[in-house]
Design brief:
2 copies of one chain form a homodimer. Chain A has 177 residues and is α+β, with helices and mostly antiparallel strands. Helices cover 19% and strands 44% of the residues of chain A. Chain A folds into 2 domains: 6-40; 44-176, Nucleoside Triphosphate Pyrophosphohydrolase, CATH 3.90.79. The first copy, chain A, has helices spanning 84-96, 150-158, 165-176, and strands at residues 6-15, 20-27, 33-40, 44-49, 56-63, 68-72, 75-77, 98-110, 119-130, 144-148. In chain A, helix 2 packs antiparallel against helix 3 (165-176).
């Protein structure tokens, strides 16, 4: 593979509940050595959920890494052995109380290719129905649900209440759906 | 702030050249405790660089976390004390050999709000001029430069050679510029 960096050794630094961290010694294409600091993540899903009125479903939650609340599309980590589409169906119900009669895979992308292997599988959920007694999600998640038009979503990007790449991608796609 | 998670203690896990890692004990809005695994990153810039022919400038490089080469817009980490716009001008020249007569700030977004504080400041560079002897970048970066139309960029997203969120965002913006 072009420009490949061959791994010479791996030092395991940290193994947590969400991420693990390692430092690899690599051989560069020119034969020199370098170190790469790598964050391992199980991968995630995110859902562009559109109501019958054409509104985009967002969730608001506090994000400790950024020390602020953010408006994002529903999303969540893939559990070990879980099919990504089932993660997406589960997270949509847990975070928003919605089930979708139409669930379509859209695209996968990496979030931070310079230091992390996290990828996000993006789905489109349409024909949403509110569940009477939705499944309960993580007990340490505090989430509020909002529904906004794509015009409102554009304004939320402009004033940085929407502030993460996956949700910006989602708003662009929602405009074209 | 809504749903705020109050930090009770911080355990420093790792301090590297690019990232550092810590685990925070936090108090949740309901008074319970939780742990948050946090990656600290200096922040980055990325550049939507459009040639006089309206082509988008991409760079191809090997990304160790994903063990593959990827096509991305030019980007790079902010050095300590560096103004983000100067980072953007510097990285564009180092990675592509271009200087821009028009350089405009567009937007900032977070890449992985669940576990990392990385933010990317996005700029638009137009009216590009090739530099005779461009500044040299990191000696452990091996980069190839490509110029593609936005239609070609769409195909590169579809076949996952473009595979990172910031470049997907950039392609959408490039269509509207």
């Amino acid at each position: 593979m072009k420009f490949e960096e061959r791994t010479l050794s791996t030092e395991q630094i940290f193994s947590g509940k969400v991420i693990s961290v390692q430092v690899d010694d690599v051989e560069l294409p020119n034969g020199k050595m370098a170190q790469r600091e790598l964050v391992k993540h199980p991968g995630a899903v995110a859902i562009i959920a559109l109501t019958k009125e054409g509104k985009l479903v967002l969730v608001e939650q506090f994000r400790k890494p950024l020390e602020r609340t953010m408006l994002e599309i529903p999303a969540g980590k893939i559990e070990p052995g879980e099919e990504p589409e089932l993660t997406a169906i589960r997270e949509l119900e847990e975070e928003t109380g919605y089930r979708a009669n139409s669930f379509t895979y859209l695209q996968t992308f990496s979030t931070s290719p310079g230091f992390a292997d996290e990828i996000i599988h993006l789905y489109v959920a349409k024909d949403l129905v509110k569940v009477d007694q939705p499944a309960i999600g993580d007990e340490d998640e505090f989430i509020e649900v909002l529904e906004v038009s794509v015009q409102e979503a554009d304004e939320l990007i402009a004033n940085e209440r929407i502030y993460d790449a996956k949700t910006v991608v989602a708003v662009w796609y929602a405009k074209s759906l």
